[in-house]
Specification:
This protein is an all-alpha fold. The protein has three domains: 54 residues, no CATH class; 54 residues; 32 residues, no CATH class.
Length: 165
């Protein structure tokens, strides 16, 4: 097919209206213009499109109904009200989310403070058991003694202890 028989590509056909209205960017308009200059087939396609657009002007134009304006304005007002309602719902949801986040933060902080107090301020049972281990090891001996009076008597006896000077 020679240059005289070249047809417009689908992309060029899609841009024809913008080309005819002068709204097509310069490089694309130049490409279509070059093709139209060299191809009679492409020129016929453009002429057919121009005639079609001209014929559209002869079609009857639909008339808007009497209450078209009132209905349109009513719908716009309703959309505006719904938009404001959406904004208020969105604002309330954001406030609830911030409030819940604050409570979670305060709860986590209280948990950490409680854990810290339990670890460092509250006496540890393990440390106490380790400190009292010698007592626990001799607990049976201490129970066999019975009372402090017996220990005091032993402490004052001459066999065990106190030498009287």
């Amino acid at each position: 097919m020679g240059p005289e028989q070249q047809r417009l590509t689908p992309a060029e056909r899609a841009n024809l209206i913008a080309y005819l209205d002068g709204e097509l960017p310069e490089p694309e308009a130049r490409a279509i213009n070059t093709k139209l200059t060299h191809s009679a087939t492409a020129r016929r396609e453009v002429e057919a499109l121009e005639r079609t657009w001209e014929l559209l002007d002869f079609l009857p134009r639909p008339k808007a109904s009497e209450n078209f304006t009132a209905r349109t304005l009513t719908e716009i007002k309703q959309l505006d009200v719904h938009g404001r309602r959406f904004e208020s719902v969105l604002k309330e949801t954001a406030q609830h989310a911030v409030r819940a986040g604050s409570w979670l933060l305060v709860s986590a902080l209280a948990l950490l403070i409680g854990y810290g107090l339990m670890q460092w301020a509250w006496p540890s049972r393990s440390a106490r058991l380790a400190r009292d281990l010698p007592i626990a090891e001799h607990l049976d001996d201490y129970r066999a003694v019975g009372s402090f009076e017996f220990l005091e008597a032993l402490a004052t006896s001459p066999e065990f202890g106190a030498e009287n000077d």
